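Aim 2 progress update. The chain analyzed this quarter is reproduced below.
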Amino acid sequence: MKKQIAVFLLLGSLVLPLSAHEKAGRTFVSNPLLLNGLTLKAQTLSMYTRGKLEVVEGDPSRPQAVRVPFRAYLRRDGTMIRNARPDFNRGWVQIEIAEILANARIGDELVIEPVRPEDQPAKRVLRVKNFWFYFNFYLDPGPGC
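Predicted C-alpha cells:
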C-alpha cells in the first residue's frame, strides 16, 4: 500500500504542468532593479531620485544579466497615474526614472512591472519618500565606511 502511494505521488508530480516561470527557466534575484547600473534599494528611492532604471534577469552584478522590458508608473490611492509617453504599452528596457517621478507626491507607489507574462516575478512596488539622496548613506553604509 505504501509503495502504491509513493508511486502515485511520484507520477502525480511528473504530470503537473509547469508554470510559465519554470518553463522559461527565468531567474530573478530578490532585487532585479538597477539604477545607473547599481542595485536600486527601496529605502533610497525618493521624489528626487535620478538615473536610468532597468530590470534584469539573473544576477545584476554579472555581465550576463539580461534586460527585461518593463512598464513603470505611479499609483496614488490605488489609482494608476498614467505616464504621458506614447510608448507606455510597449514598455522599455531602460528609462530615466525622473520622467516617471516628475508628478510624484509623498506616499505614491512606483509600480515596475515587466511587459511579458513570464517575467512577472520581477514586478516590484516601491513607496516614494521625500528625502534627498545624499542623506541615504546613513541607511546602509557600504564597505569602507
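Residues 73 and 83 are 6 Å apart (CA to CA). Residues 4-24, 133-139 have pLDDT under 50 and may be disordered. These observations will guide the mutagenesis experiments scheduled for the next reporting period.
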